[in-house]
Amino acid sequence: MDAVRQSLQIAAAGAQLEADLVVPEPARGMVLFAHGTGSGRHSPRNRYVAGQLQTAGLATALVDLLTVAEERADARTGELRFDIGLLADRLAALTDWLVEHEPAAGLGLGFFGASTGAAAALVAAAARPTSVRAVVSRGGRPDLAGESLRSVRQPTLLIVGGRDRTVLALNRTAMAELGGPTRLEIVPGATHLFEEPGALEQVTRLARDWLVQQLIGSAPT
Fold first, then answer.
1. Domain total for the chain?
2. I need a labelling partner for 72 at 20 to 30 A (CA). Which of 35, 47, 209, 212 fits?
């Protein structure tokens, strides 16, 4: 696959964030990943999903929302990963940067959020209603987005493992609060990290189809 690949440092909300940007040629949309608890741009799960989105013509931006120093501190305290306001501010700033950055400028933008990153993605989507066109939450905590849920107008897909019962209940409750079109997909037999055979592949298909439809407006090939 022909693609432009860039490893960058992006200034966002007072921090220099490490990012890996892949833009296939031609690209028809862009997906910004919002990593969850204890995860980052090097996560094999995130990179697998990103690779599959790229084959569908979607550019991907995998960004560590915490700096190296912040990650070290968070490993001790576990506090920053739940600072949804901080993460959302950085996602919003990254969104502003991406919509102007060549070769990604002009592409329809969506978020792929996992765990606490999904809450940050929803808050940032509410803050950037014209820049963000769609949201996917994988095993996410949309409840942590609080009152911002009512302001999310973008089509939102919630993907939850069937055995992740607490998170499933939280997602069902959040559905009633979300302000835009919303769909809940349950992956049978899957737990929170979708580590069961075939589970991540199913998550990826669901996310790809949703993002292609919302960002490009056609069924994936």
1. 1
2. 47
Residue 28's pLDDT is 93
The rounded distance, in Å, linking the Cα atoms of 69 and 54 is 30
What CATH number is given to the structural domain containing 36? 3.40.50.1820
Domain assignment of residue 221, yes or no: no
**Looking at the domain assignment, is residue 220 inside a domain?**
no
Query: What DSSP assignment string belongs to the chain?
Result: --EEEEEEEEEETTEEEEEEEEEESS--EEEEEE--TT--TT-HHHHHHHHHHHHTTEEEEEE-SS-HHHHHHHHHH--GGG-HHHHHHHHHHHHHHHTTSTTTTTS-EEEEEETHHHHHHHHHHHH-TTTEEEEEEES--GGGGGGGGGG--S-EEEEEETT-HHHHHHHHHHHTT-SS-EEEEEETT--TT--STTHHHHHHHHHHHHHHHHHT-S---
Beta bridge partners of 51: none
Residue 120 is predicted with a pLDDT of 96
Whether 46 and 35 have beta carbons less than 8 Å apart is answered as yes
Q: Tokens 């060549």 label which residue?
A: 102
Q: Give the pLDDT band (50/70/90) at residue 220.
A: very low
Whole-structure pTM over 0.70, yes or no?
Answer: yes
Strand pairing partners for 20?
A: 7, 62
